[in-house]
TrEMBL record:
CDD domains: Ere-like (cd14728). This is Erythromycin esterase family protein. It comes from the Bacteria. Signal peptide: none annotated.
């Protein structure tokens, strides 16, 4: 299919996006979906966060969605969950609560855009009964040590008899100095790992777990931290092996974590997921499938059906972004150059030099050829973008797509170093 045909089909099917009221078409199309997946083409773009927040507000207010689940660590995001639910033992502002985020890249969740949304959530939750308050949870699994800390704290609060056994099992990780890379290298090249100790400890926890009456969500939090501990250990062991295993461990974990939170909230629960397009857009309609990779969008569709899962992709033609030049490097405001010729973002731009909205679901689209679709990670090199494009059949990967012509970098908040 040549460029002119694609541009013509976009022009015939897209609508101009001027404001949040223009999302009515998407809101109506979501219908009875229980999983609404809101993507992003980068982890450092202000408009993606702000538009997801506005969409989420409408879904919460108009369709009774139960919680937000994000691509963030469970322990840190659970602190924000307690904040938006008015826990008296939390800081007085969202920005103060965000000091819990110390793991690079801190800007992903410690930013002005999220702070504003959390303050809205807290006000919205205030008059609601505890069983109707909207939650904010992290479903990622990088927090191996933090999740072990939270398990120990829970067992100490309830004076659990298995506390010392769990501490002993977790002590297997002490030689690695809370350094995941060191642990992964030792597990890979020296066959020194803590899998047996972790499995034994968590099986014991599952068979004897006790509720903490002072924390209504304590059992769910214990389960999630146990899942993180188990799967993060597996992830860090797989990280230094070639192939898709580490990626698949992570995305499978995020789906299981999401389903555990859904189960906690009951049969009528509905969730909004905020993650990168690479996670929420169905992997089967990208080149990921050739590498044996699965992702959240694919797994949710397979497990719950396309009628219950509604993924929305986001993209931009040009602008600025927050990212690092390498893993762990200081964050920078970087330019996002004009999209490469022939890419999806370039064709959207040529179809109309303005913000646009496309609804794919239940529409007769003929764009079955894969097109390059830009994906910017937390590590980015604007001068060499060739590896930042994923071949994608757009109308099968997503149910809708939000295109912002020119975007601006996310606004991180300043974080003082704290003990976590």
């Amino acid at each position: 299919m040549n460029d002119s045909n694609v541009i013509a089909e976009i022009q015939a099917s897209s609508m101009r996006l001027n404001g949040i009221s223009d999302f009515d078409t998407i809101i109506d199309s979501i219908g009875s979906s229980k999983y609404v997946l809101l993507g992003e083409a980068s982890h450092g773009t202000s408009e993606f966060y702000r538009l997801r927040a506005e969409l989420s507000k409408r879904l919460i207010l108009e369709h009774g969605f139960t919680f937000i689940a994000v691509e963030g660590d469970f322990p840190s995001c659970f602190a924000l969950n307690r904040y938006v639910k008015g826990d008296k033992n939390t800081p007085s502002t969202a920005k103060q609560a965000m000091k819990i985020f110390q793991r690079w890249p801190t800007w992903m969740w410690a930013n002005e855009e999220i702070a504003s949304f959390l303050e809205w959530m807290k006000v919205e939750n205030s008059p609601r009964g505890s069983n109707r308050q909207v939650g904010f949870y992290g479903i990622d699994m990088y927090s191996l040590w933090e999740s072990m800390d939270e398990i120990v704290k829970h067992l100490e609060r309830i004076q659990a008899p298995e506390l010392e056994d769990v501490k002993k099992a977790f002590s297997c990780f002490e030689p690695y100095g809370r350094n995941a890379q060191t642990y992964g290298l030792s597990a890979t090249y020296m066959s020194e790992h803590c899998e047996d100790e972790v499995v034994k400890a968590l099986l014991e926890l599952r068979s004897h777990r006790q509720h903490d009456p002072s924390h209504p969500e304590s059992t769910m939090a214990l389960d999630l931290n146990a899942m993180v501990t188990l799967n993060a250990e597996r992830y860090y062991r797989a990280m230094f092996h070639p192939g898709p295993e580490s990626w698949n461990v992570r995305d499978t974990h995020m789906v299981k974590a999401l389903e555990r939170i859904m189960a906690f909230h009951g049969d009528n629960a509905k969730c909004i997921v905020w993650e990168h397009n690479t996670h929420i857009g169905d992997a089967r309609f990208t080149d990921m499938i050739d590498e044996g990779m699965v992702n959240v969008g694919q797994l949710l569709r397979e497990r719950h059906g396309t009628e219950e899962v509604f993924p929305i992709g986001f993209g931009t033609h040009r602008g600025t972004v927050i990212a690092g030049s390498e893993w762990g490097a200081p964050m920078q405001v970087m330019p996002v150059p004009n999209a490469q010729p022939g890419s999806w973002e370039d064709l959207m731009h040529r179809a109309g030099d303005f913000n646009q909205l496309l609804l794919f679901k239940d529409r007769d689209w003929s764009l079955d050829d894969p097109l390059p679709h830009r994906a910017i990670g937390v590590v980015y090199e604007p001068l060499d973008e060739r590896g930042n494009y994923v071949p994608t059949i757009m109308h099968r990967r997503y149910d809708a797509f939000v295109f912002v012509e020119e975007t601006q970098a996310l606004r991180p908040i300043e974080l003082a170093r704290v003990e976590v």
